[in-house]
């Protein structure tokens, strides 16, 4: 099935997965705009036929200017902070990129009337390794983004406190 030719904005487009998706979009004849801060991606991954902005999705003012200039009809969101160690050691940074950055994209998609937004994420990163019945309950319930991001941090801190208590020896 061939889609109508569109202007597609891909976040994290210098990463391995998103750059391969970009190649496919270009092969299908779509115009592709990449937004990536190159914190983990490589400029060499960016296809020459794609327009590239080296920018962070957390910078709402700059991102707004890109949306205003490019007017994408579809956003494919791959930009993320994916390092579990960072999410534990620096939860503010993790939340800033993964929550606030995503909210920026959602707000701009609404403002500029983007027809579709594709969010790329893994079930394991969002929920941990859960049994199917638990995933079904979670997906059917109201488990917000910020709560999903907070729970692994809370669990790690609780484990850390338990470990410290276990090592504590009364004099």
What does this protein look like?
By secondary structure, the protein is an alpha/beta fold. 51% of the residues lie in helices and 13% in strands. It contains 7 helices and 5 strands. The protein has a 5-stranded parallel sheet with strand order 3-2-1-4-5, with helices on both faces. Strand 1 (7-11), helix 1 (16-27) and strand 2 form a beta-alpha-beta unit. Helix 2 (60-70) packs parallel to helix 4 (91-111). The longest helix has 23 residues, at 145-167. The radius of gyration is 19 Å and the shape is globular. The N and C termini lie far apart (73 Å).
Features:
single chain, 171 residues, alpha/beta, 5 strands, 13% strand, disordered C terminus
Count of individual helical segments: 7
Judged by helices, strands and strand pairing, the structural class is: alpha/beta
Distance between the termini: 73 Å
**Helical content (DSSP H or I, runs of 4+):** 40-55%
Tell me what portion of residues adopts beta-strand conformation: 5-15%
Rg over CA atoms, rounded to whole Å, is: 19 Å
Largest sheet, spatial ordering of strands: 3-2-1-4-5
């Amino acid at each position: 099935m061939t889609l109508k030719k569109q202007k597609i904005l891909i976040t994290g487009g210098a990463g391995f997965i998103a750059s391969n998706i970009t190649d496919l979009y270009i092969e299908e004849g779509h115009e592709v705009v990449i937004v990536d801060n190159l914190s983990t991606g490589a400029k060499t991954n960016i296809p020459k036929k794609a327009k590239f902005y080296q920018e962070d999705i957390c910078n709402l003012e700059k991102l707004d200017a890109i949306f205003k200039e490019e007017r994408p009809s579809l956003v494919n969101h791959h930009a993320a902070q994916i390092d579990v160690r960072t999410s534990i050691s620096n939860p503010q940074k993790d939340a800033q990129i993964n929550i606030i950055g995503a909210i920026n994209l959602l707000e701009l998609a609404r403002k500029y009337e983007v027809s579709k937004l594709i969010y790329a994420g893994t079930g394991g990163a969002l929920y941990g390794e859960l049994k199917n019945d638990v995933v079904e309950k979670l997906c059917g319930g109201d488990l917000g983004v910020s709560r999903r991001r907070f729970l692994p941090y809370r669990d790690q801190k609780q484990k850390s406190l338990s470990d410290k208590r276990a090592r504590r020896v009364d004099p």
